[in-house]
Amino acid sequence: MEIDNSKAHSARVWNFWLGGKDWYATDKDAGEQITRVYPGIVRTAQYQRMFLSRAVRFLAGEAGIRQFLDLGTGLPTVDNTHEVAQRVAPESKIVYVDNDPLVLAHARALLTSTPAGETAYIDADVRDPDAILEQAAELLDFSRPIAVTMLGILGHLTDEDGPADIVRRLIAPLSRGSYLAISDGTNTNATLNAATSDYNARLAGDYTLRSPEEVTAFFDGLTLLDPGVVTIERWRPEHPVFEDEQPVDAMCGLAVKH
């Protein structure tokens, strides 16, 4: 598959911020320009990755989850969902979902697995939850708990896409004891808002920042685990967070279905 490197690409720019190697000069230029406007974007990317690791370790460990549905996979980097989960529980099964041709080209790197577990990749759009659920059922057992992760993906949906309805449709068929993890950028910082406008213009994207209340509403009908919906550096941190530390302009949470 031919990859277009003439224009910056969101997955490659994100990979650049995370210190990866899967990017071109156009992506570096866009990433550096946005960083100049909003230096906190690199910190946000790093903290979101750390939230993924902490949440998945909890799910595979204390919560005993053995099935994961990861929507908005992005490019492979350090500690992907299957690596974190299978490090705790080698028999874990992980289904990745993305509709990005660039991510599809890297899917083989995602499809590695421990011999006891299994991974799969679904080429599908999050706006079509029925198709995702149908294909995921080929590997995952929906009569048993599943952890759904939507990290940095809901911002790619406009309000007209009905993101809250999409979340409800994805969670509806899951059994009791299933979990939902979400993280996304918030509109709480004027500088970030301006950087996001520039990001959308440069990448022909449509990333939507939402209020903390809107992010929290995605968990309606579920029971949030402590500490609730918080900025991503404050969700069960492994190291103390100083009170005077500038909060990251992104929220996250983990909730269970009863």
User: What Rg do the Cα atoms give?
Assistant: 17 Å
Helix and strand sequence? HHHEHEHHEHEHEHHEEE
Strand content: 15-25%
What's the average pLDDT? Answer: 90
By helix and strand content, what is the structural category? Answer: alpha/beta
Question: The biggest beta sheet, please?
Answer: 8 strands, mixed
DSSP helix fraction: 25-40%
- How many DSSP E strands? 8
Global outline: globular
Q: CA-to-CA gap between the ends?
A: 43 Å
Task: Identify low-pLDDT runs.
Answer: none
Features of this protein?
258 residues, alpha/beta, globular
What does this structure look like?
The protein is of the alpha/beta class and 258 residues long. 37% of the residues lie in helices and 16% in strands. The chain contains 10 helices and 8 strands. Strands 1, 2, 3, 4, 5, 6, 7 and 8 form an 8-stranded mixed beta sheet that branches. Helix 4 links the parallel strand 1 (67-71) and strand 2 (93-98). Helix 2 packs antiparallel against helix 9 (190-203). The longest helix is centred in the first third of the chain and has 21 residues, at 40-60. The chain is globular, with a radius of gyration of 17 Å. The relative contact order is 0.15. The mean pLDDT is 90.
